[in-house]
């Protein structure tokens, strides 16, 4: 595959399974004072059911803008985004975003009410059923005993767990996470990565996750799309089902991190696939 290809990277040669999410030749632009800024150019990739798909790149490469486009908050200037084979034309409860700013829980609602609220507002469940679903996902993120507490009683990491429970309670087709742990200290961030993976093992949701941390990408993801500096273009994709949380200090893990760094910042155009499965 050469640097001019616009075809999305495939999960496996000969696979007949249809992707859940397809980003096809997407160019994104936004208005800035006196000019139009191109955030991404001709980006293509596929995400399958239960993938943990990472958008990795330096600040300004358009990865968060891509996430907004998948969320339906920004229309592509060129290309198309498909979910279940249908064009994404706006926001929807089938795509829920968890942002970096975790401290946005209404302080007058209990944790249980905070998690249940979006489900109730969507009209999908009544109050009793929404609260039952909130209890289910609070148990999944280990916060059942704080269900009756208010947000000011929780640490930053716990608030982010509430945000994840609230998103999963909507039972979206794709969970979108925009650098969700970047505002946390290093130890809490690592713990949240571990908890996210443990939750994924139980629930098997589909994840599209934005980060600028190579280590976080390798820990969280089973597939990693590398985006070039501004404007963002697909430089490479790494497919790996073998990384685990114990491998962070291993020579293999460090070698992969070094190789990703080279792929991200090598000035030569790259479009390749590296499979460590």
TrEMBL record:
InterPro entries with a match to the protein in the record: AAA+_ATPase (IPR003593), ABC_transporter-like_ATP-bd (IPR003439), ABC_transporter-like_CS (IPR017871), ABC_transporter_ATP-bind (IPR050166), P-loop_NTPase (IPR027417)
Key words, A-Z: ATP-binding, Nucleotide-binding, Transport
Record's keyword annotation contains DNA-binding: no
Residue span, ABC transporter domain: 23-254
Annotated CDD domains: ABC_NrtD_SsuB_transporters (cd03293)
Gene Ontology molecular-function annotations: ATP binding
PANTHER family, per the entry: ABC TRANSPORTER ATP-BINDING PROTEIN, TAURINE IMPORT ATP-BINDING PROTEIN-RELATED
Family recorded in the similarity comment: Belongs to the ABC transporter superfamily.
Protein name stated in the entry: NitT/TauT family transport system ATP-binding protein
